[in-house]
Amino acid sequence: MVISGRWNARADVSLYLGDTLDLLRDIPSASAQLIITSPPYNIGKAYERARRRSLGEYVSGQEAVIAECVRILRPGGSICWEVGNRVEANRVLPLDIVLFPCFQRHDELRLRNRIVWHFEHGLHCTRRFSGRYEVILWFTKGDAYTFDLDPVRVPQKYPGKRAWKGKNAGQYSGHPLGKNPGDVWIFPNVKANHVEKTIHPCQFPVELVERFIVALTAPGDLVGERVALAAGGELTTRPMHRPVHRPDPASPLARREPTPPPSVRPRRRRSPAQGLRIAFRALGVEATTALDEREARRGPEAQLTLTPSGESEE
């Protein structure tokens, strides 16, 4: 594997430690298929040079980086921008809402999903509900974009469910390779004892990144993973020579055959008197009426006489 410290189109990985904008400006326009990142939240972390900037400064810096990302993204490519909330004086500011106008200024971008990443662990709040989610904005450059759903399908909730009416009655109603994972993703966050933990303070779980790469790229596409977007951050670019993970088409679930629709008996219409006789018979009594069925259909004036089951009225 060839790893370069600067942008190098022939390298397997370009890993740059420095100002993100410096490296982005070296990358040719319309060259990346996918850019996935989690920028700083402006909360004074070490990789933000331990200084909180004003909201205006923060948005202005993000806007410059977003503009460069849009430039290097090729038509049909995707940008996945993962952010959380900025909390100050116990007030919450959703950063995806703050940054959305920066993307909206680029007419070629289309928001495809606002994906919620839910996790179970984090800081415990005492004066509000504890935050257990972050948001990923998925934009595409144009309307003709890459999206391969099959490799990222998840198991059906009810894999044996069948349609009960219509032309598909009796056939399985779910996709044989699984269902669409939806826009709420549940992955554990990478904390101190997590098996994937490295020295990075804000690390993506591998599954989250993998789902985007597998669904939004093809083998050999250029992927930019921007670890930190402030000055002094890192930008990794790599051509993805990765296998496509697809469900096994030979699995029993994929090979299932539709069964013939169940036979449906025509519903028999009964008069009210007939319905009452059936109900009383179920209770162990017989019901007779002094009126014939035509009179019974006229309303509740039909006179009923109950007799024990097995006996008849003389």
Explain how this protein is built.
The protein is an alpha/beta fold and 314 residues long. It has 2 domains: 3-255, Vaccinia Virus protein VP39 (Rossmann fold, 3-Layer(aba) Sandwich); 272-308, no CATH class. Helix content is 20%, strand content 25%. A 9-stranded mixed sheet has the order 1-2-11-10-3-4-8-7-9, with helices on both faces. It has a two-stranded antiparallel sheet with strand order 5-6. Strand 5 and strand 6 form a beta hairpin. The protein is elongated. The termini are far apart.
Tell me the layout of helices and strands.
Blueprint: E1 3-4, E2 13-17, H1 20-24, E3 32-37, H2 55-72, E4 73-83, E5 85-88, E6 91-94, H3 95-104, E7 109-118, E8 133-141, E9 184-186, H4 206-216, E10 221-226, E11 234-240, H5 252-255, H6 272-282, E12 285-289, H7 293-296, E13 304-308
Parallel strand pairs: 1-2, 3-4, 3-10, 7-9
Antiparallel strand pairs: 2-11, 4-8, 5-6, 7-8, 10-11, 12-13
Précis, in short:
The protein has 314 residues and is an alpha/beta fold.
Number of helices: 7
Task: Tell the overall outline.
Answer: elongated
What's the SSE pattern?
EEHEHEEEHEEEHEEHHEHE
Q: At CATH's second level, what is the architecture of the largest domain?
A: 3-Layer(aba) Sandwich
In the CATH scheme, the class of the largest domain would be Alpha Beta
Helix content: 10-25%
Gyration radius (Cα, Å) is 31 Å
CATH superfamily membership of the largest domain: Vaccinia Virus protein VP39
**Strand arrangement in the largest pleated sheet:** 1-2-11-10-3-4-8-7-9
CATH level-3 fold name of the largest domain: Rossmann fold
Mean of all residue-level pLDDT scores? 78
Instruction: Report strand %.
Output: 15-25%
